[in-house]
Amino acid sequence: MNESENRSGGPGFSHLDESGAARMVDVSSKPETHRVATAVGRVRMGARTLALVADRALPKGDALTLARVAGILAAKRTGELIPLCHPLPLTDLQVEIQLDEDGVRITATASCVGRTGVEMEALTAVTVAALTVYDMCKSVDKRLVIEGIHLTAKSGGKSGDFRWGGPKQEPADASQ
User: Does the global pTM surpass 0.70?
Assistant: First the structure.
């Protein structure tokens, strides 16, 4: 049974073995390619909190710098955090944090030369950076909202390139 078939021989889950138990997929036969993935997310907050973040005047310190570092560290440990993810040798990881009218926008781009994609590393970086902003701000704002974490682009590998088309983009067909 190949990795895209389930126990009944039809299309199925690649992370299940013949008995239905979770397993890490064997990617050793896949060619190494350059892979890049970008993810985004936001932390929405009140104007007073946003001003404290911008002035780097939160009681806990500089949320922007700490969130960037936390995102980088988390991406490097994705294989330890997500049970079936392969540990990847990242060749680059950029975490950008920008202030907007009602919060903080986080963008992470991960790159590697490998046999599997870096989507989870980019998503993990954004998620942990957002959680760090939340932690740094929670003492001054109880209405923080983490929202919109999603993959915006990926390239490399057999499945080819992907670009997010925005909220009106049709959801993926589960059979694909």
Answer: yes
Give per-residue pLDDT as tens, 82-136: 999 999 999 999 999 999 999 999 999 999 999 999 999 999 999 999 999 999 9
Homologous superfamily of 39-154: Molybdopterin cofactor biosynthesis C (MoaC) domain (3.30.70.640)
Instruction: Kindly provide the b/e burial profile for residues 40-65, where b requires at least 16 CB atoms within 10 angstroms of the residue's own CB.
Output: bbbbbbbeebbebbeeeebeeeebbe
Which DSSP category does 21 fall into? -
**Burial zone of 135 (CB within 10 Å; 0-12 exposed, 13-18 middle, 19+ buried):** middle
Q: Phi/psi of residue 142, each to 5°?
A: -90, -5
pLDDT, tens digit, 9 for 90 and up, residues 128-169: 999 999 999 999 999 999 999 999 999 998 888 999 987 666
* Catalytic residue numbers, as ranges: 135
